[in-house]
């Protein structure tokens, strides 16, 4: 309870969710090893995942109930055996959509805490970038100031515990970057300042390694944090472009991605050239959609074929229609993207399958 209260941003919200848990009937479900887990009635596999462990919840990508894949918003009933499928990739993260259907206060507080931390990190990075931009405009020594004690002194003068707290406040718009630079200029005006001519945006390295991937070279930068955009999930062979994000390094998109096209129009100065580094040992996320005539064991047969092709399945879902057709979606990791065509061909040869396509927006 203390942990939930610490993570809740609103005391009233915490008390309300706690009261809901206390007055809600329970369901009792089992882990695959036979351990009993008590949950509020109406709980979903996501509630179960967070009841097992916070990291299991944060990395949840799917679930099996009584041996069958089910949607994450499915309601659990007494006696269900729940097996959570997790993505061990550093990019794994919860979804905001989960807040629309989770029942337990533990799951709700953990999801909110994750996104609260995300917002804080993004604000810190945005604040630091904003101050750096103003320093460049003023022709002040960027590295000297950001790496020195003067900024810390200003943070303390403004009653912030550290520089990160100052960055966060600037990123949230509580303090202007221009006012900070004016204070810096006032302190340093008696020192000899060597103006820097660099006016290009800095590509920052960020410590959040869960979002990094290898296999991409960024022009003009080494060891920069890179992530593959989930909207279009590029793989080697695709034409790609990079975008300098606020706090998450460089996001890599397919060149024909609608999102990168919009970014080029509105934030073209943040577009960078990137290229595949085919010598790097990397794994890539691929999303495919399989259309087939519905039959028993269809999902099992497709899953077996994918496993035979040595890809790591992270998520699978299927929707059946009244006309006896089934639409299945799979997300998997593969190390050799040149092998993708063979994988798609193998799936298309499964009995009943009539179409297989890569999905670029999931």
What can you tell me about this protein's structure?
The longest helix is centred in the middle third of the chain and has 33 residues, at 105-137. The protein has twelve helices and 15 strands. Strand 13 and strand 14 form a beta hairpin. By secondary structure, the protein is of the alpha+beta class. The chain is flat. It folds into three domains: 2-113, Roll (Ubiquitin-like (UB roll)); 209-276, no CATH class; 284-358, Alpha-Beta Plaits, CATH 3.30.70.260. It has helices at 2-7, 11-23, 45-52, 54-58, 105-137, 142-146, 150-157, 163-171, 177-188, 258-266, 298-308, 340-348, and strands at 26-30, 36-40, 60-65, 68-70, 82-86, 216-218, 226-228, 240-244, 250-254, 271-272, 274-276, 284-293, 312-320, 325-334, 353-358.
Keywords:
3 domains; 12 helices; 362 residues; alpha+beta; four-stranded mixed sheet; Ubiquitin-like (UB roll); four-stranded antiparallel sheet; 15 strands; flat; Alpha-Beta Plaits
Element layout with pairings:
Layout: H1 2-7, H2 11-23, E1 26-30, E2 36-40, H3 45-52, H4 54-58, E3 60-65, E4 68-70, E5 82-86, H5 105-137, H6 142-146, H7 150-157, H8 163-171, H9 177-188, E6 216-218, E7 226-228, E8 240-244, E9 250-254, H10 258-266, E10 271-272, E11 274-276, E12 284-293, H11 298-308, E13 312-320, E14 325-334, H12 340-348, E15 353-358
Helix pairs in contact: 3-5, 5-8, 5-9
In short:
This protein is of the alpha+beta class and 362 residues long. The protein is 35% helix and 22% strand.
């Amino acid at each position: 309870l203390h942990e939930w209260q610490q993570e809740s941003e609103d005391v009233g919200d915490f008390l309300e969710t706690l009261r809901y848990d206390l007055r809600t009937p329970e369901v009792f479900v089992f882990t695959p090893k036979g351990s009993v887990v008590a949950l509020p009635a109406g709980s979903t596999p996501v509630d179960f995942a967070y009841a097992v462990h916070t990291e299991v919840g944060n990395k949840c990508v799917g679930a099996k109930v009584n041996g069958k894949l089910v949607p994450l918003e499915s309601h659990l009933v007494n006696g269900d055996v729940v097996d959570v499928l997790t993505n061990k990739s550093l990019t794994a993260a919860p979804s905001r959509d989960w807040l629309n259907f989770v029942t337990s206060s533990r799951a709700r507080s953990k999801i909110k805490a994750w996104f609260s931390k995300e917002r804080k990190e993004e604000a810190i990075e945005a604040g630091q970038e904003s101050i750096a931009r103003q320093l460049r405009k003023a022709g002040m020594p960027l590295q000297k100031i950001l790496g020195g004690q003067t900024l810390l002194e200003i943070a303390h003068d403004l009653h912030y515990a550290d520089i990160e707290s100052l960055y966060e406040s600037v990123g949230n718009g509580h303090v202007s970057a221009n006012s900070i630079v004016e204070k810096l200029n006032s302190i340093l005006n008696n020192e000899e300042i060597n103006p820097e001519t660099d006016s290009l945006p800095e590509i920052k390295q960020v410590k959040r390694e869960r979002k990094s991937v290898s296999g991409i070279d960024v022009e003009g930068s080494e060891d920069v944090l890179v992530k593959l955009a989930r909207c279009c999930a590029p793989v080697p062979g695709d034409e790609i472009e990079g975008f300098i994000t606020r706090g998450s390094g460089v996001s890599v998109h397919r060149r024909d991605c609608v999102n990168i096209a919009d970014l080029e129009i509105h934030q073209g100065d943040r577009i960078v050239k990137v290229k595949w580094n085919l010598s790097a040992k990397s794994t890539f996320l691929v999303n495919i959609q399989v259309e087939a005539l519905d039959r028993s064991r269809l999902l099992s047969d497709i899953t077996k074929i994918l496993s035979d092709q040595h890809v790591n399945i992270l998520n699978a879902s299927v929707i059946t229609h009244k006309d006896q057709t089934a639409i299945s979606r799979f997300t998997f990791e593969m190390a050799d993207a040149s092998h993708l065509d063979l994988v798609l061909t193998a799936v298309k040869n499964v009995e009943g399958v009539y179409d297989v396509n890569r999905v670029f927006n999931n």
